[in-house]
C-alpha cells in the first residue's frame, strides 16, 4: 500500500536525528561512497598513531567503528545530544570526549598529537590544527566539497552561489598555516531520494543543505517534490567530497 504524503511527513518530522548515523534512510535513499575509502584509510593511520584527536566527532560513530585506537585518543564535539552519544560509544574504548564549541581555540597544548582527523568538519581551523600537531604529525580529513547536494538546495531556495568549500582553497589554507599537503583528491557522487520522508529526514539532519529548514516553512515545495517523485521516480542529486592529508614539517636535524 502506497503511503500518503501526510504519513511520510509525520514519520520523518518526528524521528530523532541525533548523531551521524544514516541507517534510517536504508531503502529510502542512496549515496555513492568516495573511491578512496575514508574509514579504511583512517583505520590504518589510527593503528600507527600514539596520540590522536578527532575534531567534531559527531556521535563518535567513525571512531567507534575502528578496530584499534591509539593509546591516547581524544574527540571533540559541540552539540550536547551528540556529546552524550559520543561519550557512550567512545569511553568504553578508552577515548576521552571533550565538549568544545565550533570556534578556535582548541583546548589542547601545542604539539601534543601526532594525528588529527576530522570527517566532514563544519570549518577547519588550519592554524589550530598546525599548532596541536607534533612536528612530523599529520592531519587527515574527508570534507564536504563545493555545490554538494546543490540540486536539493536550489529546488527549495532557488539559485545559490556554490563557490565555497573548494578543495584548492583548503590546500592554500593548509600551506598558509605551515603544513605540507601530501594528498588531495575530489569526487562528485550520485544520490537518490526515493520518497519525501527521506528528503525531510536528510534536511533535518544535514542542516546546512537548506538553512532554517522546517516542514511548515517549506510545505509547498515539499508537496511539489513529493508529486515529482511519485510521477518521475527518485530525486537525483550529487554530493561533493574531497580528501586532504597535510603534514607538519619535522624539526630540522641538529
Automatic annotation (TrEMBL):
GO-annotated biological processes: methylation
Entry-linked CDD domains: AdoMet_MTases
SUPFAM superfamilies: S-adenosyl-L-methionine-dependent methyltransferases
Lineage top rank: taxon: Bacteria
All copies of domain Methyltransferase type, residue ranges: 53-140
Assigned keywords, A-Z: Methyltransferase, Transferase
A Pfam family annotated for this UniProt entry: Methyltransf_11
Record-level Gene Ontology MF annotations: methyltransferase activity
The protein's name in its UniProt record: Class I SAM-dependent methyltransferase
Organism this protein belongs to: Nonomuraea spiralis
Taxonomy of the source species: Bacteria, Bacillati, Actinomycetota, Actinomycetes, Streptosporangiales
Amino acid at each position: 500500500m502506497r503511503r500518503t504524503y501526510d504519513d511520510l511527513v509525520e514519520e520523518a518530522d518526528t524521528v530523532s536525528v541525533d548523531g551521524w548515523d544514516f541507517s534510517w534512510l536504508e531503502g529510502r535513499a542512496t549515496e555513492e561512497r568516495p573511491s578512496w575509502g575514508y574509514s579504511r584509510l583512517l583505520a590504518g593511520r589510527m593503528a600507527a598513531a600514539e596520540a590522536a584527536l578527532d575534531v567534531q566527532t559527531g556521535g563518535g560513530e567513525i571512531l567507534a567503528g575502528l578496530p584499534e585506537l591509539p593509546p591516547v585518543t581524544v574527540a571533540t564535539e559541540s552539540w550536547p545530544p551528540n556529546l552524550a552519544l559520543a561519550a557512550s560509544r567512545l569511553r568504553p574504548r578508552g577515548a576521552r570526549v571533550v565538549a568544545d564549541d565550533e570556534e578556535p581555540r582548541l583546548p589542547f597544548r601545542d604539539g601534543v598529537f601526532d594525528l588529527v582527523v576530522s570527517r566532514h568538519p563544519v570549518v577547519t581551523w588550519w592554524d589550530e590544527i598546525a599548532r596541536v600537531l607534533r612536528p612530523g604529525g599529520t592531519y587527515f580529513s574527508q570534507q564536504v566539497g563545493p555545490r554538494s547536494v546543490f540540486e536539493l538546495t536550489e529546488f527549495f531556495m532557488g539559485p545559490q552561489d556554490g563557490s565555497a568549500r573548494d578543495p584548492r582553497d583548503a590546500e592554500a589554507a593548509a600551506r598558509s598555516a605551515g603544513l605540507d599537503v601530501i594528498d588531495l583528491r575530489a569526487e562528485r557522487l550520485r544520490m537518490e531520494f526515493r520518497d519525501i520522508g527521506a528528503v525531510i529526514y536528510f534536511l533535518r539532519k544535514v542542516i546546512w543543505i537548506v538553512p532554517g529548514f522546517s516542514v511548515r516553512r517549506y510545505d509547498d515545495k515539499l508537496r511539489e517534490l513529493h508529486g515529482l517523485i511519485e510521477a518521475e521516480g527518485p530525486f537525483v542529486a550529487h554530493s561533493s567530497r574531497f580528501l586532504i592529508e597535510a603534514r607538519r614539517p619535522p624539526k630540522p636535524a641538529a
